[in-house]
From TrEMBL:
Gene3D superfamilies from the UniProt entry: 1.20.120.1630
Signal peptide: none
Organism: Bremerella alba
GO cellular component terms attached to this protein's record: membrane
Residues spanning the membrane: 6-24, 36-53, 59-80, 101-121, 133-155, 187-204, 210-231
Keywords: Membrane, Transmembrane, Transmembrane helix
Protein name as catalogued: Steroid 5-alpha reductase C-terminal domain-containing protein
Length: 275
């Protein structure tokens, strides 16, 4: 099957999936079920692309398995974290806005937009099975990026979940583990994963360079659309001490943190001249 038809089929599958989820969300009165499909949806796209390809290579099979591992881990984590806790506060706030037809709004802005982003971001995954692929040194770089990214996401999620599981930490800001070096290790890990898929794609065929629009859009979403900027705006309204965490900790890329305000003040006081 040629790439144009494959892209069209995947677009129809994504649209059908999102429409079904939207109808289900109306019954459940819970739009946050869209998040549960996010990781799994990429695995679906990858498998469809693989199975419809004319002659998928071993490299294409390996990539699809990697996508499945990543997608199922993310969906499984979100299921464990969110199921039974009601609609996510982000969607609940959208739902409660006066004068809004939330059913239509959610179809277009939540399910429709997320489906469109999913289809664009997955371009490297859709292209890979159509390539006459063989492993190279550049492929190894892509695989390494994927491995480091998944490890970052998994470890970051585990560390934060463990911190939150202690009732004494309720309302506190976690700055241990990977969160000591970046405020969003899960987003940084996601960034590496999608860079890895892109590097794998161009390692198979340099003509796939145009699929960079996928990881570029994912990076935009992680940093400025639905990720870092959106999340931190909400957190700061609930936790005033988060401002100091922002001051001393890298937003995205891991980096040694600046000292805490209390520690810096104590150090300054201990080295001040005696009056």
């Amino acid at each position: 099957m040629d790439l144009a038809n494959l892209l069209l089929i995947n677009a129809c599958v994504v649209a059908g999936s999102m429409l079904t989820l939207w109808l289900l969300s109306l019954v459940l009165k819970d739009a946050s079920i869209v998040d549960l499909f996010w990781g799994f949806g990429f695995a679906v796209i990858s498998w469809i692309s693989l199975l419809l390809a004319s002659a998928p290579t071993t490299a294409a099979w390996v990539t699809t398995i990697l996508v499945t591992i990543w997608g199922c881990r993310l969906t499984g984590y979100l299921l464990w974290r969110n199921v039974g806790k009601g609609e996510d506060s982000r969607y609940a706030e959208m739902r409660e806005k006066p004068g809004r037809n939330f059913a239509l709004f959610s179809l277009v802005v939540i399910f429709g937009l997320q489906g469109t982003i999913m289809w664009i971001v997955s371009l490297p995954l859709q292209v890979i099975p159509t390539l006459d692929a063989s492993f190279s040194a550049l492929t190894a770089v892509g695989l390494l990026l994927w491995l480091v990214g998944v490890s970052f996401e998994t470890l970051g999620d585990y560390q934060l979940a463990r911190f939150k599981s202690d009732p004494q930490n309720r309302g506190k800001v976690f700055d241990g583990g990977l969160w000591h070096y970046t405020r969003h290790p899960n987003y940084f890990g996601d960034f590496l994963v999608w860079c890895g898929y892109y590097v794998i794609a161009i390692s198979f065929d340099a003509s796939a360079w145009w699929t960079i629009i996928g990881p570029a859009l994912m990076t935009f979403c992680l940093l400025w659309f639905s990720g870092v900027a959106h999340l931190e705006k909400r957190i700061q309204t609930r936790r005033p001490e988060y401002a100091d965490y922002i001051r001393r900790t890298s937003s995205f890329f891991p980096w040694p943190p600046a000292p805490k305000l209390e520690a810096a003040a104590a150090s300054s006081h201990s080295h001040s001249p005696t009056r």
